[in-house]
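The passage that follows is intended for readers who have already worked through the single-chain material. We present the inputs for a multi-component assembly, then the predicted structure in tokenized form, and finally a short commentary. You are encouraged to pause after the input and sketch how you expect the pieces to fit together before reading on.
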Amino acid sequence: MAPSIKNINILPDSAAVNLALATHCLEVSEQAIADKGSFHLALAGGSTPRSFYNFLATSEFAQRIDWPYTHIYFGDERSVAPEHADSNYLMAREALLDKVNIPKNQIHRMHGDHQDLQQSAIEYAQLLCSSIPVTKNNFPEFDLILLGLGPDGHTASLFPETDILQESNAVVAAVYVEKIQTWRISLSYPTIENAKHVVMLVTGGNKAEIIHDILHGVSKNPPYPTQRLQEKGILNWFLDAEAARLITDLVYDADTGC
Ligand code: 6PG
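Having made your guess, compare it with the prediction:
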């Protein structure tokens, strides 16, 4: 019998995923604002989150989340200008940030278009450590980090066989990704692992195989970068049925326990 893994939320479709995840985000934000008067959220890039961001901006949640106390950051960014079609910042702006009443100075763009990405990473790390409470290990403690998953098991810009995977001191790092022949800037493993809540948002049948491998603990060479986060038990998965079609053996009914 394969081990049953908690923290896997499987919803029938993308709309149900959006509602479940928005509810989770609201709960985390309310607790964070009650505890310290602020909510620090890092957004995922790529294409999957666009539907969720649109839902946040156009549903009741647009009024229920306390945007004036919310600070928005990014998990990673491409080495493009903020108006470029590939920009994670542009996607979040169009789908969410331009539609809710969050103060513009509380939206903290990752400067992937900086000439010197290493300098950009240093400056973003300084911003994080001055805006977000820092724990004893000198890493910022996000209230919630949203992540996506690539078919090669990367998340944020933690790609297989890249230097950033060995980064244990920097909060943010620039990384050259040979496979896609481009520079990225990304939160490092220790920063992600220091967050109070980490969500892995994955929808669509094209991710079923990689989800199967990661949640079944299939070891690959090189290893899937997301595997390290899963093994630390910090990921809260939000999946639609198509993405989860190869892991139904792992999910048990909490009521019946089987
Ligand atoms: C990025 C993301 C990356 C993304 C995955 C999934 O900048 O591309 O941060 O980690 O989440 O590649 O991308 P899709 O949602 O487009 O499948």
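Commentary: Residues 17-185+202-246 form a domain with the Rossmann fold fold (CATH 3.40.50.1360). The mean pLDDT is 95. How closely did your sketch match?
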